[in-house]
């Protein structure tokens, strides 16, 4: 009875909702960070199976670490309490209303919070598209990490991780591809210009990448 009463009190107080929301955020962030780390191992100067050797080695390393962690917990089961406490603390911090609002925030990067509040969803979407197009420039696309670095360089999306940034863009119907090639920067997760709707009054259809293009905009290099 006491356990049931404590659970009911925790639910009424919003504790369970906050932990559940925070756990989902933490899990998504960790999974996105690990996936991005594995993908970054792929070498753009190689092709075929040779290019995939480094990502496969990283996956194998993660599997070995997981197996070692499992064996340690079997020998020292009390460590599960410490791991659980650590996870709950991280979930509690991530599940704050501020973090949840930031999780949903994908306002146009060039607008202030006050301006964003006054914008209609349509205006916000158009401003976001204009910013992404500007970041792409004359290239085929822009890598997600470079897009986030560009925003954070201008004081926006501070503290936002790559997985959360991707989820925010996708909530605003900005398609994100798993593989986007940018000349001089290799292939990784990003936004391709062909996936963006054409600006009003512009001819439809993809634009070819200009021949002899030089180095990309240095402002979009990841910090």
TrEMBL record:
Q: Write down the superkingdom of origin.
A: Bacteria
The ranges of region (Disordered) come to: 100-121, 192-223
- What is the protein name given in its UniProt record? Uncharacterized protein
């Amino acid at each position: 009875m006491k356990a049931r009463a404590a659970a009911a009190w925790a639910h009424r107080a919003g504790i369970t909702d906050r932990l559940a929301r925070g756990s989902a955020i933490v899990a998504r962030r960790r999974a996105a960070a690990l996936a991005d780390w594995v993908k970054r191992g792929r070498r753009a100067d190689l092709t075929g199976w040779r290019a995939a050797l480094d990502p496969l080695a990283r996956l194998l390393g993660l599997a070995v670490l997981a197996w070692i962690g499992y064996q340690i917990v079997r020998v020292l089961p009390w460590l599960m309490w410490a791991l659980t406490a650590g996870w709950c603390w991280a979930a509690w911090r991530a599940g704050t209303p501020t973090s949840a609002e930031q999780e949903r925030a994908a306002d146009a990067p060039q607008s202030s919070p006050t301006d964003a509040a006054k914008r209609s969803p349509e205006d916000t979407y158009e401003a976001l598209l204009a910013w992404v197009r500007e970041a792409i420039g004359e290239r085929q696309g822009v890598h997600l990490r470079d897009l986030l670095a560009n925003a954070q360089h201008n004081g926006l999306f501070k503290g936002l991780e790559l997985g959360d940034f991707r989820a925010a863009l996708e909530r605003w119907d900005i398609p994100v591809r798993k593989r986007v090639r940018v000349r001089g920067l290799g292939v990784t997760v990003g936004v391709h210009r062909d996936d963006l709707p054409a600006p009003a009054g512009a001819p439809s259809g993809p634009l070819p990448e200009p021949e002899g293009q030089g180095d990309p905009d240095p402002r979009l290099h990841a910090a």
